[in-house]
Amino acid sequence: MKKHIVWAVAVLVLLSGCSVLKSVWTGDVSDEGESLQAASLPVSEEKADEEKDVRPGVNPYLWQASLDSLAFMPLASTDAQGGVIVTEWKTMSHNEQFKVVVNIYTQDLRADSVKAEVYRRVLKNGLWIDDEADGHLSDELEKNILIRAKQLYYNDVAAR
Question: Is the pTM for the entire model greater than 0.70?
Answer without folding.
Answer: no
